[in-house]
């Protein structure tokens, strides 16, 4: 076969191959256009968008709903869960023995107390010493005492302070007050108590600090004397139990705590002997300190929640 004929046969073969490849390419292009058109139709329909989204997420190995990082609970929420606190808790009734102490740490007498609290800001206390019973309370706006028509500023302040006696104040005040987490603290000693002296803790107590700005009897327009205190609650770092609460109290009850020249006393509450009542973890011992000394110790004998308490119970009788 001549070289000329060989070249012609090769050209013919190449032309056929090129034609086949061109036809295949045109077929592939047509198929791609058809698929893209189908995807466009599907994508513009709601079921199609959902299907495509699911297919895309499946290819990634996870759905979009799992990509968001959950918001961590803050310390108050952790404590709320630990104590079992919920919005269904409306009141409590505490019965117990109050032992008072003088400045020398000696017992200054005892009383049997019944404390009614309608959350967040209503209070009634019945304090019985011997055959005499003193009754006082707070309406949510004004403090009162049976048999007294005009309370002194100090007496009114001391009555309001009973609302802060128990740790659930943190939960009932959180929604309406400023909140701040203020770091950690470690305690290695328990302060000296008149009935047991100072104790070194077997293990250092690691605490988280939570602050709230707590208002009692203080209207927004400032037309009435009340008190505003920044209270720090100390939570056990291992389980979020509320161990204690502290704040500064003006010695002069008509002065603001942030006045430059006001004298202040450190107030502290210690909570102990935790028990579960109606699904809520509450302390059966509360110790109140003022100015570095024990003022009184409340030992609870009965604690009830969600009782039938008429609103009139919290008005002056």
Radius of gyration: 36 Å
The largest sheet, given as strand count, sense and whether it forms a barrel, is: 12 strands, antiparallel
Question: How far apart are the termini?
Answer: 131 Å
Coarse shape: globular
Summed up, the domain count is: 2
| Helix content, binned percent | 10-25%
Strand content: 35-45%
Put simply, the count of helices is 5
Task: List unreliable stretches of 5+ residues.
Answer: 13-20, 46-50, 55-64
Strand order of the largest sheet: 5-4-3-2-1-12-11-10-9-8-7-6
What is the CATH architecture term of the largest domain? Clam
Q: Which series of helices and strands comes N to C? A: HHHEEEEEHHEEEEEEE
Query: If you consult CATH, what is the topology of the largest domain?
Result: outer membrane lipoprotein receptor (LolB), chain A
CATH superfamily of the largest domain: Lipoprotein localisation LolA/LolB/LppX
Structural class: alpha+beta
CATH top level of the largest domain? Mainly Beta
State mean pLDDT (0 to 100 scale): 82
- The count of strands amounts to 12
């Amino acid at each position: 076969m001549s070289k000329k004929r060989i070249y012609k046969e090769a050209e013919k073969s190449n032309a056929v191959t090129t034609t086949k490849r061109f036809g295949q390419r045109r077929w592939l292009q047509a198929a791609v256009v058809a698929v893209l058109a189908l995807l466009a139709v599907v994508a513009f329909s709601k079921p199609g968008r959902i299907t495509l989204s699911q297919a895309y997420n499946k290819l990634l190995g996870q759905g979009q709903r799992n990509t968001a990082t959950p918001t961590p609970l803050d310390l108050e929420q952790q404590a709320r869960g630990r104590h079992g606190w919920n919005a269904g808790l409306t009141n409590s009734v505490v019965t117990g023995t109050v032992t008072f102490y003088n400045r020398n740490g000696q017992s200054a007498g005892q009383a049997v107390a019944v404390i009614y609290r309608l959350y967040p800001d209503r209070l009634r206390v019945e304090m019985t010493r011997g055959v005499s019973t003193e009754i006082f309370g707070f309406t949510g706006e004004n403090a009162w005492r049976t048999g007294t028509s005009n309370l002194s500023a100090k007496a009114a302040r001391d009555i309001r302070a009973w609302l802060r006696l128990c740790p659930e104040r943190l939960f009932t005040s959180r929604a309406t007050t400023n909140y701040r987490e203020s770091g950690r603290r470690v305690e290695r000693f328990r302060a000296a108590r008149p009935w047991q002296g100072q104790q070194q803790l077997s293990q250092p107590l690691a605490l988280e600090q939570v602050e709230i700005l707590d208002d009692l009897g203080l209207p927004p327009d400032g037309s009435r004397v009340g008190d505003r205190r920044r209270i720090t609650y100390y939570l056990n770092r291992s389980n979020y139990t509320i161990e204690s609460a502290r704040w500064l109290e003006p010695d002069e009850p008509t002065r603001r705590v942030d006045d430059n020249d006001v004298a202040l006393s450190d107030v502290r509450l210690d909570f102990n002997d935790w028990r579960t009542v109606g699904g809520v973890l509450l302390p059966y011992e509360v110790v109140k300190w003022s100015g570095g000394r024990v003022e009184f110790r409340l030992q609870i004998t009965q604690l009830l929640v969600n009782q039938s308490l008429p609103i009139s119970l919290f008005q002056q009788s």
